[in-house]
Amino acid sequence: MTYTPHKLFSFEQFIAEHGDNPRYELIDGELRDMEPTGPHEEVSGSIAGRIYVEILRSNLNWLIPKACLIKPPAAEATALRPDVIVLDKAGLNNEPLWQREPIICNSNIIKLVAEVVSTNWQDDYARKVEEYAFLDIPEYWIIDFRGLGGLQFIGNPKQPTFTVCQLINNTYHQQQYRLGDAITSYLFPNLQLKLDDVMPS
Predict the structure, then answer these.
(1) Residue pLDDT, tens place only, 21-77
(2) From CA 13, how far away is CA 2, in angstroms rounded?
(3) From the Swiss-Prot or TrEMBL record, what is one GO molecular function term (predicted)?
(4) What is the CATH number of domain 2-198?
(5) Domain ranges of the chain
(6) Most CB atoms within 10 A, among 4, 74, 137, 189?
(7) pTM, entire model
């Protein structure tokens, strides 16, 4: 992941210059190039597809937009772009920007976010854990298919890891899964998923 320290962006500047470019998100005014690779996009698409199957099977009024930004209400110069986001359709009418841009301001309609870890693993394991918990997002998945995270996050030896964070009393309780493990989701109790199922070819 590369950082661009020379210029700080406001939220409005970021939207005007990079809002429709899936490579970038904004954290505290700093432009972050997420440098998505083919395998990264393959894993993201596979995760979104499996979640969508569960949404249909459970007859939930939820959707997974192709692209979406989150504007945290307490952060003036932050626009988060999760790899996968699940929204409650019923709340979209109350979103002030949705009709013009795929931007979510009211986090209470966000049911789940998933981040596929790349070289910006510090954001996924630290900053976004705090940010998404503060936004009261019930479930956050961290898919570290290359085992890039720090030892304090994924253990030693490093290996592919799938972390499910469940929000309990405003804090994420994290459960890690390795290759071969059956993953448990609290939002999707009937989900049949292993990290092996979403590994890139």
Answers:
(1) 888 999 999 998 887 899 999 999 999 999 999 999 999 999 999 989 999 988 889
(2) 19
(3) endonuclease activity
(4) 3.90.1570.10
(5) 2-198
(6) 137
(7) 0.93
